[in-house]
Design goal:
The protein has 16 helices and 10 strands. With about 375 residues, it is α/β, with parallel strands linked by helices. The termini are far apart.
Amino acid sequence: MDSVAIYRDLGLSKQHSGTVESVSEYRHILQRSNLVLSAALNEFQGLAVPKTATDGLCRGNRGIGVVPISTISNILWSVLMAECGFRKEQLHGARRQGRRLGLSLRLMRTLFVSLGRIAPTLMGRWAWRLWFRTRRLPESAAGKRVAGKALRETLDVSGLPVAVYRWGRGPVVLFVHGWSGRGSQAAAFVEPLVHAGYQVVAVDAPGHGETPGERTNVLECAAVLQEVARFCGPVHAAITHSYGGMVLAYAMRHGLGVGRVVILSAPATPEFLVDGFTQTLAMPPAVVANLLQRLDRSFAGDYRERISMLNNVRELKVPALVIHDVDDASVPWEHGEMIAAAWPGARFLKTRGLGHGRVLRDRETVAAAVAFITQ
């Protein structure tokens, strides 16, 4: 589909091309146009709004007023732009104060503010889709080097080919990455652990790294960890980062055996993630309520209660070291303190100046984690 056809079908003028951030992004949008527009049409299929809510848009309609095609065209274009730019935006957790909002995020916020009040069910459905949508961030140079030295395998988990990385021989130390992360983020831990006689195992969760998919959730990722443990053997210890802590805690509460655990930068409660997500997208209260209802229906119960890290660690009888940086702008350090307090016998280590991501590469932090695992 060429650009003229896209603009004609959307009912837009060529001037709207100014909203594209770059020529390369525009070409990318053209390549994905059929797929994304089809998804957008499915999202808005059957959209009918009470006449009182659309009098200013469609005067003269009787009974149920339907949003005019020109408005729908602009909505579809906004969805198209927002979906194509989504991978640039971090929606879960807190956002650094003063951080500039990208174009795609501004478009999404506008959609939620403008449509959320008149069509909360529709926008709740879109919010639900976005909640589970994953992003693949570029792999670091260090990650590429370490991944190149790994024994790389593929593990079938319910028909999904999950990428598995293994370094060294000996008792298994499992690395569990966070949202938008990948297995090669274990890079700084590989050499010292292998040197100490351990085998480091990491996976790319569904929709992350080399594992296919565009959506996932805590329950699916926990099932992957269960299969990896069966595949690689007993897990002596585990190291988790961010969202990976919630995944491991859920898996352990449901039978995954792990001897020792290091938790880095983990969120204590899903409410924190939901609040950050809904505030980032400027969702009206009715949309938030619809999103929460959908989450509970999707998982046959209170999803937030089930994945809460605080709930899942209270009965664990496994030694744990919880590490969190006071300058973490994504997940405040108090979350680490709460997790350590809820986990019987856990130790809490507070670091400074590392933020949310550099804690994975800091020499002193890595040394503390390795010492805890090998003691």
